[in-house]
Design brief:
Layout: E1 2-3, E2 9-10, E3 12-14, E4 27-32, E5 35-41, E6 47-51, E7 56-61, E8 65-71, H1 78-90, E9 94-100, H2 105-114, H3 116-120, E10 124-127, H4 142-151, E11 155-159, H5 166-173, H6 177-188, E12 199-202, E13 210-213, H7 235-241, H8 258-263, H9 274-289
Parallel strand pairs: 3-5, 8-9, 8-11, 9-10, 11-13
Antiparallel strand pairs: 1-2, 4-5, 6-7, 12-13
Length: 292
């Protein structure tokens, strides 16, 4: 589905059998009767994707930011969050973390504390309380206003595990989302909806603020990331990796490692939590295995 400069949406077919086009791409196309043909994809500023052993899943291109939506209950996976943040950092896309279900005091408090290392790293974290029925969240609530200010004038991919509230967020900010999705599905004759396909919605009439709703995921592969580059995409590691004795330090066992020194520091509270170091070690091993 291609949107023209005037806002009209046209079904277009790629040249050749396989389409490399993703949501957010700017393309050159030629009309043919009531449809069109994609001739060329313009150069992208970035491409947000995940990759496992079997396949690559591209979410969207030319993004300004990624809003990683997680929930206080059920408890979010720190491994999934870390992987999404690394994927964003690797493409130089600003990540923002939103923690949903702030109305559940006790679970939210636990989850908010769990995110303390990410606040220390400088990530922006928003509290949200989005219900399945958007009407239960006042449009003028402080949380909604803060979120809208964050999104204004930007192209934002909403990413998160199934059940975090992505569809509810889309329905709150784009009340006509279900109607638009149904129209697109009918036009493509696909029967797909927001939980299985990635769709771009304009939040404002001027088409300056875009929200991209993506399918939920349970796994987030990073097989496109070199293990030796991991530390560069983790701010708490990067800050100390420059103190390593060896330029090709893995931060796992080398003498004179700035990262290990920080993790084991006794004269001050370490800025690298034990959990983050464990996640790094597991990821490094996982990505090393895929290379050989």
């Amino acid at each position: 589905m291609v949107e023209t400069e005037s806002g009209e949406r046209v079904i277009c077919h790629p040249r050749g059998k396989k389409s490399q086009v993703v949501v957010g791409d700017r393309i050159r196309w030629l009309p043919s009767q009531d449809e069109g043909t994609i001739e060329k994809i313009d150069e992208r500023s970035n491409l947000f994707y995940r990759q496992d052993e079997m396949r690559t899943k591209s979410f969207a291109a030319n993004l300004d930011q990624v809003l990683i939506l997680i929930a206080a209950e059920p408890e979010f996976s720190e491994s999934q969050l870390t992987r999404a943040l690394i994927a964003a950092e690797a493409e130089h896309i600003k990540p923002v973390i939103a923690l949903n279900k702030s109305d559940l005091a006790e679970p939210f408090g636990r989850a908010w504390n769990k995110l303390a290392p990410y606040r220390t790293m400088g990530y922006q974290i928003l509290p949200l309380a989005i219900k399945p029925k958007a009407a239960t969240v006042p449009e003028d609530s402080v949380q909604t206003r803060e979120l809208m200010e964050l999104l204004r004038g930007k192209k934002t991919l909403v990413l998160g595990p199934s059940g975090a509230g992505k569809s509810s967020l889309t329905n709150l900010l784009v009340p006509q989302a279900k109607v638009l999705t149904a129209e697109i599905s009918q036009a493509l004759n696909s029967g797909k909806h927001t939980t299985t396909s990635t769709t771009l919605y304009w939040v404002d009439e001027d088409r300056t603020t875009a929200l991209i709703d993506s399918p939920g995921f349970q796994e987030f592969g990073l097989h496109h990331i070199e293990p030796m580059q991991l530390a560069n995409y983790m701010p708490d590691f990067k800050a100390h990796a420059q103190d390593c004795k060896f330029y090709n330090c893995t931060h796992l066992h080398e003498p004179g490692c700035g990262v290990i020194s920080e993790v084991k520091s006794i004269d001050h509270a370490s800025s690298i939590s034990a959990n983050r170091y464990r996640l790094y070690s597991e990821l490094f091993e996982e990505l090393s295995q895929t290379r050989y």
